[in-house]
Amino acid sequence: MVREKSYRFEVISDVHIDLENNGKKIYFVYAEKNFRRALEIAKKRNCDFIVNVGDSVTNATGAKAEWQRYREIINESGYGGMIFEAMGNHETRFVKYGGCTIEEAHREFIDGTRLKEKPVNRIAGKTYYAYTDQTFGDAFLFLSLENGVSTNEIDNFTDEQMDWAEEQLERFYHEGRRVFLIQHAPIVRFGVGDDIMEPAYGGSIRMTSQNGSAFLNNQRFLRLVKQYKDTIWLSGHTHVDLRDEVNYSNENENACHMIHVPSVAGTTRLSRDKNGKRVLDRSFYENASQGYIAEVFEDRAVFTGINIFDDRLYPQYQYIIRK
Q: How does pLDDT run across 82-92, given as a tens digit for each residue?
């Protein structure tokens, strides 16, 4: 029997390597252990590569040592495949505290991910890029939260990045290629990763500021995910557990296929406080570490949820997206 042609990749997000205050205060206490497990699983399950949706580091007091630890864990794991990372909001977090400039944070991301060494299409000095799969020619488009840490308070993308993204998507679709869009933060009251009617998480991307000023490039991004409906958008950011069932949406066929990726470091749960307000329960547990194994065939992409702690697949959280 001839095996159907395919390729496989692991999808992870919010790894959060954490060396806050030089190791004196570590918030994501299971981050390193569960990242090691994710790498072991990728190797064991013969994944061709890994897609990391962002927030690889925590970056409260500087990211350089955390990026070094990130690389050390990869090297120690024996996993020899490629890892393609998107830049999340934590990669620039230290800018908020005056510890570095945006440009320095971008360089640390490029250096920490070894982006210059990867077979990708990118503009020199930029943190967004494209990768082409060699099996079917599928396009992976990695966008970047390049403007800072307060995702819900800013226009997250530059004119240049959105011009580039629009050009890439138009070309890919003209060529008939399947497109995976990797962009870390979801949109408030839209898609996946939260209770859309009553959001629990306050840090999702918004279309306007608190005073009503338009975030024009955030709006451009929203138009893209509505226009290119065959795209598969992978996001993370909220850490929400697969069990809360806010993992997939296409907004009733009014947008692309949106898949939320929980977290390696620790998932959160949708809950309510004593007053009945929707909140996130951030009580982290060692076995609450989740992602996906993606198997891509010529006519479909299959995403199956996985518990990274014990390498257990969740068939009830499987999404089959036809080309």
A: 999 999 999 99
Hey, what's the torsion of the CAs at 92, 205, 192, 265, to 10 degrees? 20
* CA torsion through residues 18, 23, 29, 35, sign: positive
Task: Give 210: exposed, middle or buried? Use CB within 10 Å, 0-12, 13-18, 19+.
Answer: exposed
Concatenating the DSSP letter of every residue in 192-255 gives SSS-SSS---S-SB-SB-TT--B-HHHHHHHHHHHH-TT-EEEE-SS-B-GGG--SEE-TTTTS
Domain count, the chain: 1
- CA 75-301-263 angle, to 5 degrees, is 45
CATH code of the domain containing 154: 3.60.21.10
In this structure, is residue 259 part of a structural domain?
yes
Question: Which residue carries 């630890």 as its tokens?
Answer: 69
Give the residue-averaged pLDDT of 202-220. 96
Asked if residue 96 belongs to a domain, the reply is: yes
Q: Give the predicted TM-score (pTM) of the model.
A: 0.97
pLDDT in tens, 172-196: 999 999 999 999 999 999 999 999 9
Range of the domain at 153: 6-322
Q: What is the dihedral of CA 107, 112, 117, 120, to 10 degrees?
A: -70
Is 1 a member of any domain? no
From CA 308, how far away is CA 234, in angstroms rounded? 18
Assigned domain for 299 exists: yes
Query: From the centroid of its chain, how far is CA 275?
Result: 32
Q: What are phi and psi of 296, to 5 degrees?
A: -115, 125
